[in-house]
Specification:
By secondary structure, the protein is an alpha/beta fold. The chain has helices at about 5, 20-30, 45-55, 70-85, 110-140, 150-155, 160-180, 200, 205-210, 225-235, and strands spanning about 10-15, 35-40, 60-65, 90, 145-150, 185-195, 245-250. About 50% of the residues lie in helices and about 15% in strands. α2 crosses α10 (about 225-235), α4 (about 70-85) runs parallel beside α5 (about 110-140) and α5 (about 110-140) packs parallel to α7 (about 160-180). The protein binds NADP nicotinamide-adenine-dinucleotide phosphate. NADP nicotinamide-adenine-dinucleotide phosphate binds near residues 45, 195 and 199.
């Protein structure tokens, strides 16, 4: 292995097959990382983005795991370590939104499991991946962890109690973990996007999307590439003094 190969960063992007994760995969591959594109069900989408990247002479590989399942996450991380001997960058991006049936509006959900399922994927996924990856980062004395929160976790979104709770909890989790591991040369930060154009948001009813606009000072939805730029900055070594912070990219929703 050449010196350049040895220095190439290895990144794992959960939910890298679609939406924000896909743009992050593109950006990190362009930055020179070998990128593992995690997905749960849509292998076709994961393959498509990998083929695009390898076709451009960059490095990416698909890897499946349901992030809410700690056994699957451990198997995924073991496979990457067996192939690469390290994971330098972990982007905990996989997430699901609460729909009416999945514990959305607090007074509407009927089954407790539906409410907790969103928390299990969004918060449990971050926890499982950090737990599996951190020992390897500690061994190498290097790591960048970026956890995808949301403005819903900062100001709350009516009709989305479980989602808002999970995204707020990710912030608390990240701040606590940042304090624990920063002395080991591992930084943990959050990104909190606003209303970004992806499958997650475009499937919302037209009236909901229109109703959001007066709340967005910039008067448009965000682009996945705008979130990916921020993630790339946090995943790089340019601003190591950024520790345990929440970087909001929301067109002004929270100002
Ligand atoms: N879009 C927004 O406006 C917005 C705003 C704030 C925060 N966010 C956050 O940003 C992240 C990405 O959102 P997005 O809009 O890009 O979502 P998206 O377009 O719906 O894509 C979700 C991605 O997560 C994966 N995924 C879902 N559940 C998974 C699981 N249990 N295990 C592994 N992968 C799983 C999906 O893979 P499969 O297709 O294979 O299931 C897919 O790659 C989420 O955490 C979301 O909460 C989004």
């Amino acid at each position: 292995m050449s010196e350049q190969e040895r220095k190439r960063k290895v990144a794992l992007v959960t939910g890298g097959s679609r939406g924000i994760g896909k743009a992050v995969v593109r950006k990190l591959a362009g930055d020179g990382c070998t990128v593992y594109v995690n997905y749960r069900s849509r292998e076709d989408e994961a393959r498509k983005i990998c083929d695009e990247i390898t076709g451009a002479g960059q490095r990416a590989q698909i890897i499946s795991a349901d992030v809410s399942d700690s056994k699957q996450v451990k198997a995924m991380v073991d496979q990457i370590i067996a192939q690469e001997q390290k994971i330098d960058v972990l982007i905990n991006n996989a997430g699901i939104y609460s729909t009416a049936s999945k514990g959305g509006a607090f007074l509407n959900f009927t089954k407790e499991e539906d409410w907790w399922e969103v928390v299990k994927v969004n918060l449990g996924g971050v926890m499982n991946c950090c737990k599996a990856v951190l020992p390897h980062m500690i061994q190498k004395k290097y790591g960048k962890i970026i956890n995808m929160s949301s403005v819903s976790g900062i100001r709350g979104t009516a009709g989305n109690t479980s989602y808002s709770a999970s995204k707020a909890a990710i912030i608390g989790f990240s701040k606590a973990l940042a304090r624990e591991v920063v002395r080991l040369n591992i930084t943990v930060n959050c990104v909190a996007p606003g209303f970004i154009e992806t499958d997650m948001t475009t499937q919302l009813p037209e009236n909901v999307i229109k109703g959001m606009m007066p709340n967005i000072p910039i008067q448009r939805m965000g682009r996945i590439e705008e979130v990916a730029e921020l993630v790339s900055m946090l995943a790089g070594d340019r601003v190591d003094y950024l520790v345990g912070q929440v970087m909001v990219v929301d067109g002004g929703i929270t100002i």
